[in-house]
Design a protein that fits this description.
Helix 4 crosses helix 10. The protein is built from 15 helices and no strands. It has one domain. The protein is globular and about 55 Å long. The protein is an all-alpha fold and about 240 residues long. The longest helix is centred in the N-terminal third of the chain and has 22 residues. About 45% of the residues lie in helices and about 0% in strands. Bound molecules: heme C (4 copies). One heme C (HEC) binds next to helix 2, helix 3 and helix 6. The site of one heme C has 23 residues, from helix 5, helix 6, helix 9 and helix 11.
């Protein structure tokens, strides 16, 4: 009798464990443009446009500056800065991630993007999840602190030797960088937030990478006959790419 109970409970716990594994979703990086489907326009507080105006949006591009080559030399890095993991670690997003951890529309060249600070978005970018902070955090959303800014913004000999800029005043920079959702804002507050396109974008990613690489291929943006994907690749994105 006892043995039977033991056996049943062993089988049950095995079953529960495998179910839990099947439900575990590994978040992937979707890119700032995917966040922009909702996080732009007046109602949401123009987060995407504001970010485009920051130095973070061209942090990767800065690796093409003549100063970049000098900084690499000072650091004893023989590679082209665009290929040096050390430089990319602070000047890009998800450069160190495996290719399958990045959506096909994701671009390393977009610099220090939303997800560098807020975490990879595939599992939290659903409108329902996003509106519930606990759920979003559980799905991988991070709310950064000033301590997180300092992980990149400390005085680096290689940088100061070349451009002689003072250390960043984090308190002041925090204010400058603020991109809050305005009071009374949020989903539906502005047509520019394009909730329909956004919902489509959200649905596309959530869980699509959960179980297998095959799922990824199925949802690949290259399958252009999928109207839902056309919706996601908004005109703004396609014109930029061509
Ligand atoms: C499908 C639409 C949608 C997409 C796509 C989306 N969000 Fe959101 N996000 C929302 C909504 C809705 C809220 C809640 C806004 C409010 O009412 O304050 C929100 C809130 C947030 C918050 C604040 C959370 C809090 O509790 O303070 C952050 C940070 C955020 N989003 C980051 C992102 C990032 C980064 C991406 C891209 C990876 C992204 N979002 C993609 C709809 C979206
Ligand atoms: C992943 C590394 C990283 C993190 C985290 C980070 N930054 Fe930056 N930040 C950069 C890089 C790289 C640049 C320079 C980009 C350029 O000009 O090419 C930069 C530039 C800036 C600038 C422009 C001023 C200047 O000296 O060029 C401000 C302001 C700034 N960051 C504020 C912040 C704040 C506030 C936080 C925290 C919320 C933060 N950063 C987090 C990497 C980071
Ligand atoms: C620990 C994070 C970190 C690393 C690693 C790093 N950078 Fe930076 N870089 C920053 C930050 C933060 C800024 C902006 C503040 C400053 O200039 O010090 C910046 C600024 C720059 C700038 C000036 C951008 C401008 O607007 O003029 C260049 C060029 C640059 N970095 C190149 C490089 C190169 C090349 C490497 C690799 C050898 C590298 N960085 C490694 C964080 C980093
Ligand atoms: C350099 C880091 C950094 C980047 C890049 C960044 N954020 Fe944030 N974000 C923050 C910080 C810091 C806060 C404020 C956290 C707090 O209030 O405690 C924040 C807050 C938010 C909020 C909540 C605002 C509110 O009402 O409280 C939203 C929404 C958001 N970010 C969306 C985005 C989106 C979308 C992008 C890309 C277009 C982005 N963020 C890029 C650091 C960043």
């Amino acid at each position: 009798m006892r043995l039977r109970v033991l056996l049943v409970s062993t089988i049950l716990s095995g079953l529960i464990a495998s179910l839990a594994m099947a439900q575990e979703k590994h978040p992937v990086y979707v890119g700032a443009r995917a966040c922009a489907a909702c996080h732009d326009g007046k109602g949401m507080g123009h987060q995407y446009s504001k970010w485009l105006l920051t130095h973070h949006a061209h942090a990767y591009a800065s690796l093409s500056k003549p100063e970049a080559v000098k900084m690499a030399q000072v650091s004893g890095i023989p590679q082209d800065p665009h290929e040096a993991p050390v430089c990319l670690g602070c000047h890009a997003t998800a450069a160190e991630a495996e290719p399958w951890e990045r959506d096909e529309a994701f671009r390393v060249t977009d610099g220090v993007q939303c997800e560098k600070c807020h975490g990879p978005g595939s599992e939290y970018m659903d409108a329902k999840v996003m509106s519930d902070r606990d759920a979003a955090v559980k799905a991988g959303l991070r709310i950064p602190t000033k301590q997180d800014c300092l992980k990149c913004h400390y005085v680096k000999g290689s940088h100061v030797a070349v451009h002689r800029k003072p250390a960043l005043d984090v308190d002041k920079a925090w204010e400058i960088l603020a991109h809050p959702v305005p009071p009374g804002g949020g989903p539906g507050a502005s047509p520019a937030a394009a909730p329909k396109a956004a919902a489509a974008a959200g649905a596309r990613y959530v869980g699509s990478y959960a179980s297998s690489w095959a799922a990824h291929l199925k949802y690949s943006p290259r399958a252009s006959s999928n109207t839902r994907l056309k919706f996601h690749v908004a005109p703004r994105f396609t014109s930029e790419r061509s």
